[in-house]
């Protein structure tokens, strides 16, 4: 509401009776939360458990809980404690603001204060707000006036705060207490918009065949509420949220060459791994916070090249092979940990010794002991061109296809390209090949092809297949 934002001042004249103990707002900004524990899941959903001390009277009480998430899922709220039961609950998320005050004042009277800029004298008039749609229309006495931004100092004084406007998100719960006094209670609920991701920074040293890997937890809070001095546990995994199974097209980038089978000491919760933060932390609203959880030096790693031909067909021009960083998450000769899903960003030192970014890719949740092949980009100097040299029908539904893969290398050192032919039928046979390959799955063959420095090489393969 542009007109309201242009007002020079906006004030509240509130009688003392307008405030109750539960509705008061701490001017210091201190939180009304108690002892808070937050369990944060990868998908942006979190479990909040807030232990507070409640002062209750015997019988029915209306208890207000300020500083809950503005995105709280009210249907997940649970309040537990000795000697009381819940009658009903309400969540008030209509937050106090100048625009909302004016909206709620329609039909009510306010005090309009104008200041003479020459003399400083103030004049006050009672005005009834008639409309607040794109501008403020008021009735002052017998005249109708539109409140304008005319450069004169103007304030609007409201008599009270409307009962359904809150300075911060507030959950109100009506309980039936067996006796009066102070009782401990735990408020728990689920909220979206509080999540975490894992981010990794890898510094690769090609000469040493090693890399340093650092893992960071990135917490993001867009709930509208800060969680102060919270005990925080991160859960790595994909709990179901009513959406059913993940579809095949939602898979990750495929960085896991072979899934690991090793177990580690990290705490589990069912089929998920827990990453508790060592210290309590404040997760402020509209904030990203990063905490280190992995720091490994000198893990073995090597750079290689990969090329995938997705079907037995020709390419009109040479295609770049993928630059690939290979490493392990094993306890022996690897990173020695489970890796939560996230993004790995890879750096290498240039000739001046400065680390430079060379690429990034995402990984899925990765068990310990996995063999990893992280694709970081496309090679400038290493190319592959697949060509169908001949395709002959052998009778029935059988065909013979002779493929030639031409690999070129403009680098001053020899390289090895892991070339894969995918899209094979389960009964496809290789009847001839210039270099021995291996069948890694029903529809995929792989060859490790050495390519000399500043040279080229051809790989010839003959397939017997259906169609």
Summarize the helices and strands and which ones pair or pack.
Elements: H1 2-5, E1 9-12, E2 35-41, E3 45-56, E4 59-66, E5 78-80, E6 84-92, H2 98-104, E7 109-115, E8 122-131, E9 136-140, E10 143-147, E11 154-158, E12 170-177, E13 181-192, E14 194-205, E15 210-221, E16 227-236, E17 256-258, E18 268-269, E19 272-276, E20 281-283, E21 287-309, E22 319-328, E23 342-349, E24 355-363, E25 371-395, E26 398-409, E27 415-422, E28 429-433, E29 438-441, E30 444-451, E31 455-466
Parallel strand pairs: 1-11, 2-16, 14-23, 21-27
Antiparallel strand pairs: 2-3, 3-13, 4-12, 5-13, 6-12, 7-8, 7-11, 8-9, 9-10, 14-15, 15-21, 16-19, 16-20, 17-25, 18-19, 21-22, 22-25, 23-24, 25-26, 26-31, 27-30, 28-31, 29-30
Report how far apart the termini are.
67 Å
**Count of β-strands:** 31
Helix content: under 10%
* SS class: mainly beta
The amount of beta strand, in percent, is over 45%
Low-confidence stretches: 1-29, 243-252
Describe the global form. Answer: elongated
Average pLDDT metric: 84
| Major sheet size, sense and barrel closure | 14 strands, mixed
Give me the number of helical elements: 2
Q: Rg, please?
A: 33 Å
